[in-house]
Amino acid sequence: MANFRIYAFLALTALAFTACGPGEKKDFEVLDGEILDIHDEVMPKLEDLNHYAEEIRSRIVQLDSLQQEGASSNTLAEQRLKANDLLVKLHLADSLMWDWMRAYEADSAKALPDPEETLKYFQNEKAKILEVKEKTNASIREAQNFLEN
């Protein structure tokens, strides 16, 4: 019976080390690298967000000027509404990135005792930064299209 306990202890110990082994650490290390690559791809686009927001603000001033000069049309009103909507989207994309960066705690997550929790953290963070990327790219595309017309 003593031998069984020793073998059971050794088996459980080996299982514990396997569960926390380099395979899982590697998984979240890979995710962390992917997350940072996405961040590095999106971060320079914050300048684009600000640039397009400034361009759209200028367009709003032009639209307001046309309206004050007596030009009256539904098109002007529609353009102004679209411009304001785009400003909100550009600001949202910018805010999402800054909020994500402030909340990203890779080192703390790596120190979690449960490798499953660590892996889930990095999976969730990858989903979040992908959303930031999608919203950033979409708002830039919409702003470009608006300004080209």
Helix percentage range? over 70%
Output the structural class: mainly alpha
Order of SSEs: HHHHHH
Strand content: under 5%
N- to C-terminal distance: 83 Å
Uncertain ranges: 7-23
Give the topology, please.
Layout: H1 2-19, H2 22-42, H3 45-68, H4 74-103, H5 106-110, H6 115-148
Helix pairs in contact: 2-6, 3-4, 3-6, 4-6
Please describe what this structure looks like.
The protein is mainly α. The protein has one domain. The chain is built from six helices and no strands. It has helices at 2-19, 22-42, 45-68, 74-103, 106-110, 115-148. Helix 3 runs parallel beside helix 6 (115-148). The termini are far apart. Mean pLDDT is 85; it is low at 7-23.
Observed structural traits:
single chain, 149 residues, mainly alpha, 6 helices, 0% strand, rod-shaped
What is this entry, summarized?
With 149 residues, this protein is mainly α. The protein is built from 6 helices and no strands.
